[in-house]
Amino acid sequence: MKIKNIDAYQIYDSRGFPTIEVEVLLENGVKGYGLVPSGASTGQFEALELRDEDKNLFRGKSVYKAILNIKNEITPLLIGESVFEQETIDQKMIDLDGTQNKSRLGANAILGVSMAVAKAAANENGIPLYEYLGNGEGNLIPLNEIQILGGGAHADWAIDIQDFLVIAIGAKTYEETLEMTYNIYHTAGEIMKERGKCVGIADEGGWWPDYVSNEEPFEVLMEAIQRAGYIPGKDVGISLDIAASDLYDGEHYKFQLTNETFTPKEFYNLMVLWCTEYPIISIEDPFADTDFESWKQFTQELGHRVQIIGDDLFTTNIKRIEQGIEEGLANSVLIKLNQIGSVSETIKAIRLTQKEGWLPVISARSGETEDAFICHLAVGTNAGQLKVGSFARSERMVKWNENLRIQRSLGDSSKFIGGNIFQRIFKKN
Fold it and tell me: Averaged over 8-12, what is the pLDDT?
């Protein structure tokens, strides 16, 4: 079935910032939609999100240029193309853009069309999106990584560490991961309120803290896990997103909260200390995206028991992932659609990660929409893990709820392996 028309509109993400919704119309009237997310803490190697930069329009955040690029350049290019040729369509847009980081047309423009094409193709076939994206081979319900406390760019630097999260490694079912997280999330909120340490809700739904150190969240999180009735390290593991590139000036790492400065070696030792003192099973961007020496040494020392995720390090970019694999910089890759800017490139990044025995972690952005595309991406590719944010705010909860729907749709063919996903990397170290 061929594409008849493509249209685009400005809508708004979970922070109220403008973003793009794309509608792809097929010749028989079937439609597909693509809603583009947006990040607050973005890596320097990400594909470019094109905004108008006109202070008189939404304080510079409007996306009308990207929308015009869809209408005036991308639409004429793709009218008449078969909706089932996802890779060809994505490559045509990449070639039309002609830049390394999709900066001419905008990665948000290209991705919106790419997502809408995939949805239209699934709708035309009358099958769920996860089945289309995974060629019918996806049935693994992902293990959730859920934020309890927000910090860094997600909470106006209330603390320097961007995310304190939990992973219900002891859960036997997907439903149990939600119950365990629910209990821990609300218990943590109670503890913070008891101590007068809760300011509100951060960008991704986690509690916005009022702390005097970056260690204080560990104490609250450990107490919340135990008060909720679980054993840290057995039932529940701690996950951190350090977002260390935001803390690095090229020579030193700096904590604004405590006015501390660290050499790369000192910061390395701090990360090792935290992973030794607390039941941390996963850590994301523990070092800056250029501090390869620390990444490599850290993976050699702790990769046998900690999932070490590259986000800013890799930005869902095939070449950077290949380099990371060759140099042994991590053992996991955070996967974000809008970091690379097309569906087919994202799936290639997932497949490369899996082929090399690493773990992909499908991730949302801090500026999310009500769309649940990434749930279908996670299940369709059997990625095994999903990081969406917290257990609050509808743009987050819609993803957890969609996993429940997908599980029901799969019926007896659905699988959930929970914390056993980590055996795929730990047994190799």
Answer: 98
